């Protein structure tokens, strides 16, 4: 992909369904006691992997009028082949929790990137609950030997992870008693919200723990998945950085554990507002309005992102590093070593590509220090086949001088196949 600088971002967008919510509502619909209809399901390859895995488990899924329809009261069957999770960590980790509570054996596999990512964090709690899991040095492929009756556990997460929390809660549906997950830092809470929204009570406690009583089963029903707020982030950032911009994005998820970047950018001087906020199945959504330019007086704050802030910003950190290169004082990111375990080592890859565009970057084991403001110039960007990197540096390309080429840009289909066409539709030269 070759990109040239833009003068402004201008227009109105509606985005495909949220990836995190889509994974979870597909699993909920597959387990529900009655039929379910899902509108605006994510177009990401990752979410398609979840659907394919469910179909291999015998789940009936039909497409009707751009909706996914799941028959209710379905029974999983042992798959005839390995379940291919592709590049999707959410599919592999959360589906492992689902399968732990079923009396069958299934092998979950992934691509080269997913097969290099740590899975001990789900293996340990699921085995404590009574499942048996075979792994390769703590990584995929995983062979899950499930049980229809699991043991409830109280488990403290060593690292904040919504995927691990979700795997345990899904397993807890088939446990005899109360399952509790204790977090050290609040992570995204889609699972808790959607469980409650589909009839399985989950209690969120003041000590950062969440609990559910099993055995339990979801009600079916309809849901329209809100637009993906992590996808919206790239357009919001581009509009913020180009002074003449005016952008509206309708129907976007505004879950507080996911939309923290809006508050962060506002504190840095961005003109961002939200309105028309509603909820569906406990998930808030609404309209994001962005006017270009940065109020540099309002933005004179400490731009350190660390500790409790990191889980709710984890997907946007490479993008925030790009933005930081344009703001007086730059940006400091710490306590983000989890970024080294994503589709690529996102700390190293972000630093490499920012330097290629002329920015000054210091890399730490757990973060980055990006100096700013720094004029960027076009460069050859190595995405390392990481969709978040490719999209973050597409934004950088719009504010750089000269042409930028992004190698491996096709990887954005993992999360957002419409990204480049939508960006072209609102980027004005």
End-to-end distance: 17 Å
Report the CATH topology name of the largest domain: UDP-n-acetylglucosamine1-carboxyvinyl-transferase, Chain
Largest sheet properties: 5 strands, mixed
Content of β-strand: 25-35%
CATH class of the largest domain: Alpha Beta
Question: Outline, from the CA principal axes?
Answer: globular
Classified in CATH, the superfamily of the largest domain is Enolpyruvate transferase domain
Mean pLDDT equals 95
Spans where pLDDT lies below 50 across 5 or more residues? none
- What is the count of DSSP helices, taking H or I runs of 4+ residues? 12
What does the oligomeric state look like here?
A: single chain
Strand order of the largest sheet: 16-17-15-2-24
The CATH architecture assignment of the largest domain turns out to be Alpha-beta prism
Structural class estimated from helices and strands: alpha/beta
Number of strands: 24
Radius of gyration: 21 Å
Helix content: 25-40%
Give the tally of structural domains. Answer: 2
Topology:
Blueprint: E1 2-3, E2 8-14, H1 19-31, E3 36-39, H2 45-56, E4 61-64, E5 67-70, E6 83-84, H3 89-100, E7 105-109, H4 120-128, E8 132-136, E9 139-145, E10 154-156, H5 162-172, E11 177-182, H6 190-197, E12 202-204, E13 209-214, E14 221-224, H7 229-241, E15 246-253, H8 260-267, E16 270-280, E17 283-294, E18 304-305, H9 317-324, E19 331-333, H10 346-356, E20 361-364, E21 367-370, E22 380-382, H11 387-399, E23 404-407, H12 419-426, E24 427-428
Parallel strand pairs: 2-15, 3-14, 6-7, 10-11, 18-19, 22-23
Antiparallel strand pairs: 1-23, 2-24, 3-5, 4-5, 7-9, 8-9, 11-13, 12-13, 15-17, 16-17, 19-21, 20-21
């Amino acid at each position: 992909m070759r990109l040239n600088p833009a003068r402004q971002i201008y227009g109105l967008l509606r985005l495909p369904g949220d990836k995190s919510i889509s994974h979870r509502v597909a699993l909920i619909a597959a387990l529900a006691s009655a039929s379910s209809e899902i509108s605006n399901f994510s177009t990401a390859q990752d979410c398609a992997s979840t659907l394919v895995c469910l179909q291999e488990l015998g789940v009936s899924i039909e497409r009707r009028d751009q909706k996914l329809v799941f028959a209710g009261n379905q029974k999983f069957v042992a798959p005839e082949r390995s379940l291919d999770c592709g590049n999707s960590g959410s599919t592999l980790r959360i589906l492992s929790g689902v399968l732990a509570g079923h009396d069958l054996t299934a092998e979950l596999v992934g691509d080269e990137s997913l097969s290099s990512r740590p899975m001990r964090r789900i293996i340990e709690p699921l085995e404590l609950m009574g499942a048996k899991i075979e792994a390769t040095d703590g990584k995929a492929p995983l062979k899950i030997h499930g049980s229809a009756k699991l043991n409830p556990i109280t488990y403290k997460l060593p690292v904040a992870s919504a995927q691990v929390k979700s795997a345990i809660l899904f397993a807890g549906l088939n446990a005899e008693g109360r399952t509790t997950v204790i977090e050290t830092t609040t992570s995204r809470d889609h699972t808790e919200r959607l469980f409650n929204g589909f009839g399985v009570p989950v209690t969120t406690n003041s000590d950062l723990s969440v609990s559910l009583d099993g055995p339990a089963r979801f009600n079916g029903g309809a849901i329209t998945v809100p637009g993906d707020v992590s996808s919206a982030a790239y357009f919001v950032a581009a509009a913020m950085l180009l002074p003449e911009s005016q952008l509206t994005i309708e129907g976007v998820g505004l879950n507080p554990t996911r939309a923290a970047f809006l508050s962060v950018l506002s504190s840095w001087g961005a003109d961002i507002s939200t309105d028309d906020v509603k909820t569906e199945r406990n998930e808030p959504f609404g309209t994001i309005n962005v006017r270009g330019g940065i109020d540099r007086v309002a933005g004179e704050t400490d731009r350190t992102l660390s500790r409790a802030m990191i889980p709710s910003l984890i997907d946007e950190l490479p993008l925030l590093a790009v933005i930081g290169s344009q703001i007086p004082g730059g940006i400091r990111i710490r306590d983000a070593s989890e970024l080294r375990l994503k589709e690529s080592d996102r700390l190293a890859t972000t630093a490499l590509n920012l330097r290629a565009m002329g920015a000054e970057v210091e890399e730490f084991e757990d973060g980055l220090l990006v100096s700013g403001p720094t004029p960027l110039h076009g460069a050859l960007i190595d995405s390392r086949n990481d969709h978040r990197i490719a999209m973050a540096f597409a934004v950088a390309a719009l504010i750089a001088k000269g042409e930028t080429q992004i190698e491996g840009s096709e990887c954005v289909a993992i999360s957002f196949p419409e990204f480049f066409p939508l960006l072209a539709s609102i980027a004005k030269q």
